[in-house]
Amino acid sequence: MKDYIILRIITKLTIPLILLFGLYVQFHGDYSAGGGFQAGVILASGFILYNIIFGIDVGKAVLSQRMSKILMGIGVLLFVGVGIMGIILGGNFLEYNSFSFDSTSGQMIGIFLIEIGVGLTVGNVMILVFYAFNNEES
Amino acid sequence: MFSRNLFAAIMSMTIFSMICALVFLLLDGVDVSLTEAAVGAGISTILFLSSLKHMDFIIKKNTKPFLFSLVLFLVLTASLSYIISDLPKFGEAKASTDSYVTDYYLKNTDQEIGIPNVVTSVLASYRGFDTLGEVVVIFIAGISVIGILRKEYKEQ
Q: Predicted ipTM?
């Protein structure tokens, strides 16, 4: 669809804003609405818009299917890893109190890390499902 | 939803999701509203539309089971409307959602977790194990979709 000049220009203008909003929702989820789940979906939809307008091949050069699968796994492993870190540092599974010198900053670090894990997994699953549906067209 | 045209059905579902998001926003559920707008109205429309390419547009006209589905629809609507009278009234103090757990979260989030958004603190810390389950479910769903559609890809 890259022959349509209006679509191309509007996409180029909006994609940075979508990605910025996604990152804002991801990292500002502690203070306002949002979190990893919403951020993953918003980032994935920005990337899918790029794929629709400029073609799957160009999109796959940015984030290949293999890389996306690896990132999807890393998200879950990060979540479980944070949980196990809680056990190693002397608490329960997914207890973040001992991550830092006092319990509230430990909680903040733990929540920050697992939100990144959730965002990675959700976003990459959405991108991979989109790739899976659109694989045969070049 | 009664349309035979799948494209119209998908679009009406998107509009329904968007209205749902607005309703959640009016009820002060900002996090849920954001999720509904992003997932229900945004990405599921794209995924439905991309799956639409793989199937035949025309659904065979079949008027026979219409009466049966009409009766089923009426019975379900009647039974669900009957149950509505058992639900707690909107904003009632004794409703089960306002039990002691909600009070505990609202009072202690500031000292125990230290972040202003109570929804995030419940989601990520108090109920972290539930969220882990959700993420694993999404992970498994993604793997299944890739696995189901993989064969088709390999043949071509």
A: 0.87
